[in-house]
């Protein structure tokens, strides 16, 4: 494959080397070391769970395409390790300029891993349509913008630090949709944009990983960890049961569809992420899990057939109805539950509700605007745009010795 757009030897390795050198030099001057209060040792298992979740879970979760498995898992690992270093650097800069409190290095890494979830979700929307060079640029831009969005929420809208971090699903989904709208749609006859039983099975394995570790994700930085774990588990359990029920009801022959189960079993974890540590009654979490699964499956029907075609949006992994819509539902539920909890504080309730709604709207607006800008930048010729006919193809990035000729 000697085409210029496929030859990354003169771009990707040098960009990786440059960025890694920047991270190493920056860590020498800005590394905070063990000073400050670290996360308690008890939190390390949860930290490791989230690490497994983003690497194993999302790595397999994105293996939905028949010819893009190497890139889905390999590129996922690369951008995670790059993104975590970038996030820690941004966190250290914010602490250096006294814009963020120093919670210790382990907490910075924990926030970095959670923040990377936004990039991974966005990657699902553009999967197979952008090359590694474009993916690295998108990762760096999205992380910086996400931290800016979080800083606005915390500084001006007085949103709790943990709550602002949970906007990660909302931001990642709509940033990815805005980016993918800037790329041409693949041809409907392109069979590479389809799954196989093997890719569906591996993707479902990723969903199972994510399902198992999602309570740790929601509770890692929460103050009330037990509440967060229990509420997340109940929400996930109900969303999984609802997914099987609705899948059978909405399919013509009454059989389960793997695409439904693959997406909807996680809806409860996304929906409950905003309120996991504040809900006192498990039945509320269970209702949110049920509603999250309903909006995911029904949304997949409506969006794919009604909304995506006129808007020219091709969402490769269905991140809108897997993460975007449940996140919107969760954000609205957080506002409703906040109003119920603070109903007696009528003097400032309107103002506080306005701040919470403002944070929700600000996150979506910033994600959409910066996503469109980023998508436009990624389309410049310097970043080696992939022709539509070459979408969703592993062979252009990885060696396949068994396909070599001339032996």
From TrEMBL:
Gene3D superfamilies on file: Ammonium transporter AmtB like domains (1.10.3430.10)
Keyword hit for Transmembrane helix: yes
Annotated membrane topology: Multi-pass membrane protein
GO BP, one annotated term: ammonium homeostasis
Transmembrane residue ranges: 12-30, 50-68, 75-97, 135-152, 164-183, 204-222, 228-249, 283-307, 319-340, 352-380
GO cellular component: plasma membrane
Annotated compartments: Membrane
Transmembrane listed as a keyword: yes
GO molecular function: ammonium channel activity
Span of domain Ammonium transporter AmtB-like: 44-390
Keyword set, alphabetical order: Membrane, Transmembrane, Transmembrane helix
Protein family per UniProt: Belongs to the ammonium transporter (TC 2.A.49) family. Rh subfamily.
Protein name, per record: RHL protein
Organism: Scytalopus superciliaris
Gene giving rise to this polypeptide: Rhl
């Amino acid at each position: 494959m000697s085409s210029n757009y496929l030859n990354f030897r003169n771009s990707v390795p040098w960009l990786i080397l440059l960025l890694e050198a920047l991270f190493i030099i920056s860590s020498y001057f800005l590394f905070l070391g063990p000073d400050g209060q670290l996360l308690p040792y008890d939190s390390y298992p949860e930290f490791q769970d989230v690490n497994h979740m983003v690497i194993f879970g999302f790595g397999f979760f994105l293996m939905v395409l028949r010819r893009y498995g190497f890139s889905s898992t390999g590129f996922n690992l690369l951008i995670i390790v790059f993104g975590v270093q970038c996030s820690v650097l941004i966190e250290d800069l914010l602490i250096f300029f006294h814009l963020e409190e120093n919670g210790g290095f382990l907490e910075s890494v924990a926030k970095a891993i959670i923040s990377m979830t936004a990039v991974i979700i966005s990657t699902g929307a553009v999967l197979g349509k952008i090359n590694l060079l474009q993916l690295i640029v998108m990762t760096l831009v999205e992380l910086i913008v996400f931290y800016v969005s979080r800083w606005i929420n915390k500084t001006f809208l007085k949103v709790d630090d943990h709550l602002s971090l949970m906007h990660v699903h909302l931001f990642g989904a709509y940033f990815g949709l805005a980016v993918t709208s800037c790329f041409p749609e693949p041809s409907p006859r392109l069979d590479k944009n389809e799954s196989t039983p093997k890719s569906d099975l591996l993707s479902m394995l990723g969903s199972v990983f994510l399902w198992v570790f999602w309570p740790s994700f929601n509770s890692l930085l929460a103050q009330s960890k037990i509440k967060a774990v229990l509420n997340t588990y109940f929400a996930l359990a109900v969303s999984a049961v609802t997914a099987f029920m609705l899948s059978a009801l909405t399919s013509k022959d009454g059989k389960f569809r793997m695409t439904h189960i693959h997406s909807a079993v996680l809806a409860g974890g996304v929906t409950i992420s905003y309120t996991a540590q504040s809900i006192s009654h498990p039945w509320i979490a269970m209702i949110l899990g049920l509603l999250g699964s309903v909006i995911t499956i029904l949304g997949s029907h409506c969006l794919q057939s009604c909304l995506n075609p006129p808007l020219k949006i091709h969402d490769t992994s269905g991140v809108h109805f897997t993460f975007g819509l449940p996140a919107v539902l969760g954000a609205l539920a957080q506002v409703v539950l906040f109003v119920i909890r603070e109903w007696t504080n009528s003097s400032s309730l309107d103002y506080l509700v306005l701040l919470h709604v403002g944070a929700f709207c600000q996150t979506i607006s910033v994600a959409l605007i910066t996503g469109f800008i980023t998508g436009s930048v990624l389309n410049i010729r310097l970043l080696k745009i992939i022709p539509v006919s070459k979408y969703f193809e592993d062979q252009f990035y990885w060696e396949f010795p068994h396909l070599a000729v001339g032996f």
